[in-house]
């Protein structure tokens, strides 16, 4: 696997896991009771985006490491997906 392919896989994992991390710890202005004039009540009080980006990077590194282990040490790849579960090898 080339470094570009590894980076592409990491980036896809990073981007998808970002949507898992973003909602954690969000408190809206309506929940906090301090809605600023002219803003949506559902807007976050503090987004803490840098903490979420760091958490997302760490989660993505963990998932990428798991993917790397499965591909390189267990020998599974994308071509093995149709045969991964028993009984599904005759898919056409």
Descriptive overview:
The chain has one domain (3-74). 51% of the residues lie in helices and 0% in strands. The chain has 3 helices and no strands. Helix 1 (3-21) crosses helix 3. The two termini are 28 Å apart.
Offer a quick outline of the entry.
This protein is an all-alpha fold.
What characteristic shape results from the CA principal axes?
A: elongated
Summed over residues and divided by their number, the pLDDT gives a mean of 85
Strand percentage: under 5%
Distinct helical segment count = 3
Which stretches of 5+ consecutive residues score pLDDT under 50? none
- The quaternary state of the protein chains shown equals single chain
Q: Structural class given helices, strands, pairing?
A: mainly alpha
List the defining traits of the structure above.
92 residues, mainly alpha, elongated
Can you lay out the helices and strands and say which pair or pack?
Elements lengths: L2 H19 L7 H4 L16 H24 L20
């Amino acid at each position: 696997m080339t470094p570009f392919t590894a980076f592409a896989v990491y980036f896809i994992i990073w981007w998808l896991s970002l949507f898992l991390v973003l909602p954690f710890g969000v408190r809206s202005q309506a929940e906090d009771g301090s809605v600023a004039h002219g803003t949506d009540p559902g807007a976050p009080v503090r987004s803490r985006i840098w903490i979420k980006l760091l958490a997302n990077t760490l989660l993505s590194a963990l998932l990428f490491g798991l993917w790397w282990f499965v591909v390189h040490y267990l020998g599974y790849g994308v071509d093995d997906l149709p045969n991964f579960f028993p009984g599904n090898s005759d898919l056409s």
